[in-house]
Each structure stands twice: as C-alpha cells, then as structure tokens.
Amino acid sequence: MTVMQRKNILILKNICKSFNKKKVLSDFSYSFPSNGIIAIMGPSGCGKTTLLRIIAGLEKQDRGTIEKSSDTSISYAFQEDRLFPSISALKNVECCCDDSAKARELLEKVNLSEFCDYLPAELSGGMKQRVSLARALSVNADIILLDEAFKSQDKDTREMLYKVIKGESETRLIIMVTHDITEAENLASEIISL
Ligand SMILES: Nc1ncnc2c1ncn2[C@@H]1O[C@H](COP(=O)(O)OP(=O)(O)O)[C@@H](O)[C@H]1O
Ligand SMILES: [Mg+2]
C-alpha cells in the first residue's frame, strides 16, 4: 500500500511571541500544505495578524523556527487596504505585478473594471479592500496571506470573491484570517483556532 505524503510548503515549529511581556503566541506549530485554503480564526487581539506578519517576515518570533524553501515567495493583503493614495486603482495593482493587462483582468475579477482609473479616496472601504485583494493576487507568489479580506463586502460580492479565491488556491496556498465560521467552513480545508 502506498501512503500519499503531503508536501508542506511552510512549517512553523514552537513559535512564541510576546509584546511587552504579554504572551501573544505560545508554542504555535503548524505544517501548511502547498496549495488549498487554510483559515485562521480566534478572538480579536489573540495574535492572528501577528502570526501572518511572522510568516511574512515582517515580525520576528521570540522563539521557534520557520521552515520554507528560500525561493518560496509570499504575497500579503493586509488587514488595512494600504493603497498608495495618489495613484489609481489600476496603478496600485500594476505596481506590484508590472503587467497592465493582468492588473486590469484582476480588477475585473473583483468586479471593479469600471473603477480602474479611480483614486483610492474615490472608492468605498469595500472597494479599496478589493483593490488590495487584486493587488495581492497579482503577485506571482506561492503563498498568499489574506487578513480579513472579505470583511467589508456584501453577501453577493463575498460569494463572487470566494470563487476567485478557490480558483487561486488550486495552484498556491492561501492562508486567510476570518471571523466568519461559515466562510471558514465553506472555503478552507483546515481551520486553525488561535
Ligand atoms: N507592534 C506591537 N507592539 C505591541 N503590541 C502589539 C504589537 N502588535 C500586536 N500587538 C498586540 O498583540 C496582540 C495581538 O495583536 P494582533 O495580532 O493584531 O491580533 P488579532 O489580529 O488577532 O486581532 C494585541 O494585544 C496587540 O495589542
Ligand atoms: Mg488582526
């Protein structure tokens, strides 16, 4: 009998992180597959964003190890949209992928084709979040981190975005933070509760 061994792209072992002596992550360990969707859940302030920041290398853990290949690339849609305010939605995406056609196609996918030339200040919160999502997806990365990416969307828009994310997850890993258990159960193959 052959046993299929899962190929892990990212292995976290015993990650610990404190801020001002307050423990946020304590011996967190997890092995992430190379594709699919993994959801991270937990109450506000429990360390979800900190965990994504540590995975992205924006924050250093106090203890523990992160194993991944040196050529594994990571893209990140932050909890805040973090768009450049003085350039259009299209340029905000284009500046990450350097491919105007791809940027346009992604904005179309997130239902923003008519808003390519708008500045971030001319868009709603949910629209800005979708530009940020399109920007994260535009990068040819192996792992995509999504921090509450669907939070400001209405139901129909969320359903549409879920399809986009599911499609993307066939070939790369998506790690998403959410407070919505239905969303996590519908989308993710595994749910991490912090
Ligand atoms: N740079 C920082 N300095 C001090 N405390 C921080 C910092 N970043 C996060 N924290 C604290 O760590 C805890 C977890 O934060 P965070 O990871 O943003 O939570 P979550 O995303 O689960 O809501 C919070 O108590 C927060 O105040
Ligand atoms: Mg957070």
Task: Give structural notes.
There is one protein chain. The chain is of the alpha/beta class. It is built from six helices and eight strands, in the order βββαββαααβαβαβ. It has helices at 48-56, 89-97, 100-109, 125-138, 155-168, 181-187, and strands at residues 8-19, 22-33, 36-41, 63-67, 74-77, 143-147, 173-177, 190-193. The strands form two sheets. Strands 5-6-7-3-8 form a five-stranded parallel beta sheet, with helices on both faces. Helix 2 (89-97) crosses helix 3. The chain is globular and about 45 Å long.
Write the topology of this structure.
Elements: E1 8-19, E2 22-33, E3 36-41, H1 48-56, E4 63-67, E5 74-77, H2 89-97, H3 100-109, H4 125-138, E6 143-147, H5 155-168, E7 173-177, H6 181-187, E8 190-193
Helix pairs in contact: 2-3, 2-4, 3-4
The structure holds adenosine-5'-diphosphate and magnesium ion.
Magnesium ion binds at residues 48-49, 79, 147.
